[in-house]
Amino acid sequence: MKVEIGNATLYLGDCIEVLPALNKVDAVITDPPYSGRTHAGHDATNEIRATLGYQALDDVMCEKLALAFSKCCSGWIVWMTDHTLAPIISSALTEQGRYVFAPLPFFQAGRSVRLTGDGPCSWTDWIIVCRTKAQSKWGTLPGGYIAGPGWNDKARMGGKPTALMELIVKDYSRAGDMVLDTHMGAGTTGVACIRNGRKFIGIEIDPLAFDIACKRIEQAVAQGQLFEPESTKQMQEAMF
């Protein structure tokens, strides 16, 4: 199923099946499921909190996604993950000829605890970013992200704060760019794109999450762009 809302095009389906039919995009910014270890650790405490409800990624799927992303994307790939999959994803993207940077942290103090009480709980997600040679003069980018006050507006379990996604969208794309999120979830990256003058393609396999994303992106389109597009001067300064 395909839904168009303003500058956003949303697909309900499996991204591996949808991606071959898409035209090139300027950036991929996505937050797929994490490793089996992370999922198992979370779901082991399901008597206290809800299970994630979606499958973890394995090495084979990481390689398939790395290939698909590299084929469809002419610019930055920004892939959020955990510490277990970070080296696997980095290797898979390198195999596709991408220049992969050291993983960037997203740190949110006190975000969660290990309810089993058997050790520390990580407050850090890892962001794998890679570029082609065309982005070699993109400009200096942050070495990571730290959650600020009010960064607890996740619309779905496993989602990311809107403020975080707005920063990432502005850092790794330009006004007017087409941004792809293959694991759209509740549509937070889409909302960030609409608010900041980007076009958006989102793919989501879960019908319930897809419905939430459609409603949130409809609201963002109705509200209009919150910020003026980056000026030509700002874009030129960022490039050199």
Taking all Cα atoms into account, the compactness measure Rg is 17 Å
Give the helix tally. 8
Q: What characteristic shape results from the CA principal axes?
A: globular
* N-to-C series of helices and strands: EEHEHHEHEEEEHEHEHH
Strand content: 15-25%
Distance between the termini: 42 Å
SS-derived structural category: alpha/beta
Q: What average pLDDT do the residues reach?
A: 87
Helix content: 25-40%
Largest sheet: number of strands, sense, barrel closure: 10 strands, mixed
Unreliable stretches (pLDDT < 50, length at least 5) are 47-53, 231-240
Which terms summarize this structure?
240 residues; alpha/beta; 10-stranded mixed beta sheet; globular
Write a brief caption for the model.
A hairpin with a 2-residue loop joins β1 (2-5) and β2 (8-12). Strands 1, 2, 3, 4, 5, 6, 7, 8, 9 and 10 form a ten-stranded mixed sheet that branches.
Task: Give a written overview of the molecule.
- The chain has helices spanning 15-18, 36-43, 59-72, 86-95, 162-172, 188-195, 207-223, 232-239, and strands spanning 2-5, 8-12, 25-30, 73-81, 99-100, 104-107, 124-131, 145-146, 178-181, 199-204.
- The chain is of the alpha/beta class.
- Strands 1, 2, 3, 4, 5, 6, 7, 8, 9 and 10 form a 10-stranded mixed beta sheet that branches.
- Helix 3 crosses helix 4, helix 5 crosses helix 6 (188-195) and helix 6 packs parallel to helix 7.
- The longest helix has 17 residues, at 207-223.
- It starts with a strand and ends with a helix.
